């Protein structure tokens, strides 16, 4: 039992270091909408899922969450700001107030971030299924 816990401790420490660095960067950039949201909402507690998966020996899935988190944050910030910029460009002088409010608040950062994490997890799952079938 002790050997199993020690074996699982290394991936857990690596993943927590990755998450700590990501958290630190987000804390520094918390004045931006997306990073502020991540800090305020504790990264939607995905780090808890990562820890639980590591404890149960599902390293591939927990690493997928860690890596998906980093890439998802980058994509969420870049694409989210791009979508917001496109939305704000649609505002004209004759645009009504309700439409302006909708266009100015088109924040898709979090959706992109979580979607990417889910996509990475699904890709890992599909990869495991394919490799399992090929090994039969």
TrEMBL record:
Keywords: Membrane, Transmembrane, Transmembrane helix
Transmembrane intervals: 12-29, 35-56, 63-84, 107-126
Domain of life where this protein originates: Bacteria
Protein name (database record): Uncharacterized protein
Natural source organism: Catonella massiliensis
Organism placement in taxonomy: Bacteria, Bacillati, Bacillota, Clostridia, Lachnospirales
């Amino acid at each position: 039992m002790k050997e199993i816990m020690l074996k699982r401790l290394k991936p857990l420490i690596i993943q927590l270091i990755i998450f700590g660095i990501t958290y630190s960067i987000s804390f520094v950039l918390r004045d931006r909408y997306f990073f502020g949201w991540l800090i305020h909402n504790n990264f939607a507690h995905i780090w808890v899922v990562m820890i639980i998966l590591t404890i149960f020996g599902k390293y591939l899935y927990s690493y997928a969450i860690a890596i998906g988190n980093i890439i998802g944050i980058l994509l969420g910030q870049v694409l989210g700001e791009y979508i917001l910029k496109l939305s704000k460009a649609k505002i004209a002088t004759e645009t009504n107030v309700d439409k302006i409010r909708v266009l100015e608040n088109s924040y898709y950062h979090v959706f992109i971030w979580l979607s990417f994490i889910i996509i990475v997890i699904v890709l890992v799952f599909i990869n495991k299924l394919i490799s399992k079938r090929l090994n039969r």
